[in-house]
Design goal:
Layout: H1 2-34, H2 41-53, H3 58-69, H4 71-85, H5 90-112, H6 132-154, H7 159-214
Helix pairs in contact: 1-2, 1-3, 2-3, 2-7, 3-4, 4-5, 4-6, 5-6, 6-7
Amino acid sequence: MNALISGCLVAVAWVLWRSPVQASSGQLRALDRGSAAKPSLGVILEMMAVAMREGSSIPHALEVIGSIVGGTLGGGLCRASRSLMLGFSWEDAWFAASLACQNTGEQGRQKSEPKGRHVRKPKDKDDDPPSGDVAAALDALSVIDGALKSTWTRGVSPVGPLESAVEQLDARARASIEQSAQRLSVKLLLPTGLCFLPSFMLIGIIPAIGSFIGH
């Protein structure tokens, strides 16, 4: 009887432990099915906040969300998760994640290059700047690293830093939209002003000059 009760308690604990990340996984899969685009960094941070709020561990949340996101960023998140599970320090785990992102981007670039008979000379890694996908993944890793570091090192609740990171991303996006709108307004007003300039010259300036000369 005691063994049966213990087994039931273990099963319930397992379900409760898995449920936060599974819920986050379901939301991310729904987003992935509804749109061909990958989830944005804000959505990923929100899903991590949901998982952490419900008691999921950082390595497990990184592994599950990274496997769903996929691509360069997903590979980096999974690598960080495996490194933390193996006992690496926080800095070493995220350094390994950044290396995984760079290696994934380099492999993708080599596959996309046309094959030829010429042999390409090896280059230093510093010679070629990271591609757009790799650079975006590295920036996202930096944001996630900063949001979760205090939780891993000092035991601080991760919900607040994650929500602050989401708010900063929203503020940055709003500022970018406002700047784009201002540039667009300038581009629209300049041609409009040039269109009105000839009519202004014909209707206002030239008759005034003619009347002044006539007198």
